[in-house]
């Protein structure tokens, strides 16, 4: 079935306290999607963010980001007051997030809510809370202890902790659990609030005919509960440090390549365990999302391994990944799940064969379409039905920002291809129409492009720090007129 959706991170929603959350504004956005005839809402990873504020570098691949907990719901429950929340300096503005001020303002409030929620012992008698803790214990306890110990060491990476707890000596684990029992309870409470609020929002979206497209990063951050608790899953040396890290080789866009720094998987170990950790990870994703976009899909075929300590990705080499074996196990154990394969970048025949064998739709990006002639695979006339077309992703500039940066020959080709007139006031809509009208089964448009915003609204510029993940949508952006225009366009092309 032909359908369309909008890409908008949760953090980019308007809300009262400095960052998008699972607040009433999120429900208003779902209403907007329904009114605009959209069937999908794509978001970015929901994991807790650390240094660099990237949702692709999380302290846990299972835990949720406490920034997204709606404080107004905690006020309704009597655990916070509006005056306490209003008195905090969350920084930023209605157009961007200030993550540093968010960190210092939000966590004291969440701790205060926890203290009040547990003061009379009612939380420990809440059957829903107890069921959540029991069901998620295999990752929740490791995450709670990781964050607690991390805090006790002033927030430094776990490789700098004392040897006994860094190495998870049983007596050290027990000592920390006993000493910091209240802190562990806080993290259980925090995650319970996150998952309860998110699942309520997802249920509302589903009831309104909107499905959630989630995003799973292929790699996990080194400083994470995943690696601290499960070192055997990764390529680590005898000291517990990475022997090699992830990245991408040099290309026309990055002459020294991209050095991501994530530890690499020990795929031989995963194979011996029947990919058990991956099955658990993916199963958890489908409790949160209806469809999952798997980031850097080509890494399952081959991955770029850079020696640990290198300052660029130039010295890496290609290594074989698990290939189809992982997805064969996934289909057998979890059933047929809906996946979007992020198959961007340099694609060898073996990568193309893997995507084809899985049957998953790949991605087409219009911003990649106009620089190499009529046979470019990203031009709409070259699409197959089984794909998802985007004007751009979270890693691209907005369409308007991108268009304004084009060289004259590329812009002339784009203008000719789309039959754009020079007086066209909002070029983004011409590209949106090309995506919506294409043969692709699914079209996904970033909200910034529907709002015709320039480069200042870009979400992320890869390999840079300090300016990313901050953009927020203004509260008045989702107008009835915009919903009607989007709806008309999608209906016109059978979406």
Q: Could you walk me through the main structural features you see in this protein, from its secondary elements to its overall organization?
A:
The model has no long low-confidence stretch (mean pLDDT 95). The protein has one domain: Glycosidases (TIM Barrel), CATH 3.20.20. The protein is α/β, with parallel strands linked by helices and 495 residues long. It has helices at 24-35, 71-76, 82-86, 99-118, 127-135, 137-152, 163-166, 170-179, 181-207, 225-229, 267-272, 276-288, 324-334, 349-358, 399-404, 408-418, 427-437, 447-450, 480-492; strands spanning 3-7, 40-42, 211-216, 244-248, 258-263, 291-294, 302-307, 317-320, 339-341, 362-365, 387-390, 442-446. The strands form two sheets. Strands 9-6-3-2-1-12-11-10 form an eight-stranded parallel β-sheet. It contains 19 helices and twelve strands. Helix 1 links the parallel strand 1 (3-7) and strand 2. It is globular. Helix 6 (137-152) packs across helix 9 and helix 12 (276-288) packs across helix 13 (324-334).
Name its key features.
eight-stranded parallel sheet, 40% helix, 495 residues, alpha/beta, 12 strands, 11% strand, TIM Barrel, globular
Give a concise summary:
The protein is of the alpha/beta class and 495 residues long.
